[in-house]
Amino acid sequence: MERTPKGLDLSLSEKLQLPYGPGLHNNLTLSLSNNVTHAMRKPCCDKERTNKGAWSKQEDQKLIDYIRVHGEGCWRSIPKAAGLHRCGKSCRLRWMNYLRPDIKRGVFGQDEEDLIIKLHALLGNRWSLIAGRLPGRTDNEIKNYWNSHIRRKLIKMGIDPDNHKLQQRFPLPHVHQDYAAGASSSSVSMNNDHSRVPVPPFFKSPCAPNNGVSFSSKCCHDEEEETVMISSSPLNLDLTIALPSPRLAIIVEDKPTPNYESSTKRS
DNA sequence: AACGTGCCCAACCGCGAAGTC
DNA sequence: AGACTTCGCGGTTGGGCACGT
After folding, report:
1. Which pLDDT score is estimated for A154?
2. Distance CA A178, CA A161 (A)
3. Mode of pairing for the β-strands spanning A187-189 and A165-167
4. What are residue A188's DSSP bridge partners?
5. Best label site of A23, A104, A157, A262, fewest CB within 10 Å?
6. Is A36's CB less than 7 Å from nucleic acid strand C?
7. Which of residues 74-93 of A have CB within 7 Å of strand C?
8. Which nucleotides of strand C come closer than 7 angstroms to any CB of the protein?
9. How far does the CA of A108 sit from the C1' of B2, in Å?
10. Please, are residues A161 and A154 in contact by the beta-carbon 8 Å criterion?
11. Which residue positions in chain A have pLDDT lower than 50?
12. What does the alpha-carbon distance between residue A124 and residue A53 come to, in Å, rounded to a whole number?
């Protein structure tokens, strides 16, 4: 079954209605779900007979072997066909987030981090779309990285990670320090005394050329809220989202992997 | 050494979207 | 047309590890 990934083809109107923060979307979802009962929904699998929790090496191997031969598709039937006591959803997640041969693991580079921030400013919490611009990275990985690293970092810098607004009331010297490395020509005029705050590098520089998303930001001073807004306009809204890197149906090589229950997570 | 706390991240859950019957 | 099925997404959880006391 071939589908167009959700939100892949952003219409111009959608591009212009930048989802600064997930608020709107979430509120909508919330209000809808409050009015709908899902009591009739069937469980996605027979929970009695399915394994849950961390995957064992044997389970991984079964899934890899199966997909190596048959390719991805029809996740619901894969567990049975592959001899796994897992639900299809769990198989899909394990494959997509961990076993796929094209997954790039390891620490995020500065360029990747900057790109994530830029894309988040533009797309909000649409992790799958963001992941589509970062070859080898999964939405789950990016989401985790955002929540555990970037989010905190932005807060520390005095930037609201939800709406990407620079808060005015933050200890400026701290921000100066943090931005020092990336600060050069561009700066933001913040206060009446014309003190200047360097713009974080991810707001200044255009994206890496091969990412196909370009930015230009200007800042303005929002008197009422006493925040410095990194305006979304005029943005180059060439947000043509390319399809994520093609996934291999056949795995050629075994990849060194994963963490299993007993393995250590950290070095 | 023992305990508490915070962080990381794999995995789960619920739900909407899209396809099929 | 509408019920049902399947997929994919985003939010959340919980186990395990690192680090501080």
Report:
1. 86
2. 16
3. unpaired
4. A197
5. A262
6. no
7. 74-76, 88-89, 92
8. 4-12, 15-18
9. 35
10. yes
11. 1-42, 170-267
12. 29
